[in-house]
Amino acid sequence: MNKKCGYIALLGRPNAGKSTFLNAFLGTKLAVVSNKPQTTRNKILGVYTEGDNQALLLDTPGIHKSHGLPKMNQVMNKVAWSVLGDADFVCYLIDVTQGWSEEDANWIEGILKKYNKKALLLATKTDKVKMEEVEQGMINIAEGFQALSEKIASNDEIKCQFIGDIPQAISSKRPEEIAKLRHFILDQLPQADWLYAEDDLTDRPQKFVCAEIIREQIFRQLGQELPYKIAVIIELFEHKKNVTDISATIVVDRDSHKGIVIGKNGSRIKSLGTDARISLERHLERKVFLELFVKVKLGWTENSNMLLEFASLQEPDDVK
């Protein structure tokens, strides 16, 4: 039989449910998930192989207005848009509880005008509210998309074809809905040789995934206290006979943030270490010995070299 393989870009505003959808599609945890917007900083590739199909899902930072924000936010936007050049298919996600917004209109307008392949519009988090609210949100999104399409068609050529229901309701918490949508998306893949081995999950090294798992715990425990200017660097990653030794440094932007991470008498960093170790052991399926340290690097989110060093975040050259 002929093999199929293609890149699927996941786009949308911050906290639209892209990373949760990626994890659900893959059937395992790869991307950081929290209730805080802009948790995802990097383009993360998830590989899903089933039968003769290989889907390469590109989870992206949430597309947001970055004018006046740190350089990190501007780079995150460029990283998100850069995936369109690789994508064979696009899923644009909107939180059904938030509905259509001006930002969605701006981003989808760009997709409709510039992207000459197929796309899906997904209304996510349908499990979060009552059915009446889901229906209202769906109508709001559908009307917003229809008005935008009519406006563009009157002046410009629409290159992108959105297929299926507009929008398609989906909950990443409902496996049967994910399975149905997964099958639909796999059918859209072009015929092509696989780019990864059958058992590959991502192109990211294990150290990157482990750093993301630790960063997730920081967001979960300090989401209300600590801003986004944090990073995690894996200094040591060593498999031994019965345990994996991991040493990680948490990078913060201010001295005051260091105190928040450490906590009174070291209580917070101890709690972070415990929860991160449990998540790491679940991911690695073996015992983990974890050490955490904290250091301050002033202005790292404004420095291109430090963005690359601390957050693996590199500005694309060809995105305007």
Automatic annotation (TrEMBL):
GO terms for molecular function: GTP binding; GTPase activity; ribosomal small subunit binding; small ribosomal subunit rRNA binding. It comes from Fluviispira multicolorata. Residues 214-298 form the KH type-2 domain. GO terms for cellular component: cytosol; plasma membrane. The lineage of its organism: Bacteria, Pseudomonadati, Bdellovibrionota, Oligoflexia, Silvanigrellales. Residues 124-127 are annotated as: G4. Its main location: cytoplasm. GTP binds at residues 12-19, 59-63, 124-127. It is found in: Cytoplasm; Cell membrane. Coiled coil: none annotated. Pfam families: KH_2, MMR_HSR1. CDD domains: Era, KH-II_Era. GO terms for biological process: ribosomal small subunit assembly. Keywords: Cell membrane, Cytoplasm, GTP-binding, Membrane, Nucleotide-binding, Ribosome biogenesis, RNA-binding, rRNA-binding. InterPro entries: G_ERA_dom, GTP-bd, GTPase_Era-like, KH_dom-like_a/b, KH_dom_type_2, KH_sf_prok-type, P-loop_NTPase, Small_GTP-bd. An essential GTPase that binds both GDP and GTP, with rapid nucleotide exchange. Plays a role in 16S rRNA processing and 30S ribosomal subunit biogenesis and possibly also in cell cycle regulation and energy metabolism. It comes from the Bacteria. This is GTPase Era. Residues 38-42 are annotated as: G2. Residues 12-19 are annotated as: G1. Monomer. Belongs to the TRAFAC class TrmE-Era-EngA-EngB-Septin-like GTPase superfamily. Era GTPase family. Residues 4-191 form the Era-type G domain. SUPFAM superfamilies: P-loop containing nucleoside triphosphate hydrolases (SSF52540), Prokaryotic type KH domain (KH-domain type II) (SSF54814). Residues 59-62 are annotated as: G3. Residues 170-172 are annotated as: G5.
